[in-house]
Amino acid sequence: MTLTVYTIEMAYAHMRQLQELANRSRAHQPAAAHRTDRTGRPARRAAKKR
Question: Considering the entire predicted model, what is its pTM?
Fold first, then answer.
């Protein structure tokens, strides 16, 4: 049986890879996705003053 040692450095490197992947996928989203809030609903527009 082979025992694989998983070090803190390996975990940190894996977390960095996941963060880079998340940043790349976020950068490829359409611009409209950045204007919505986190619940996915469109942002509310302010009422026009008359």
Answer: 0.45
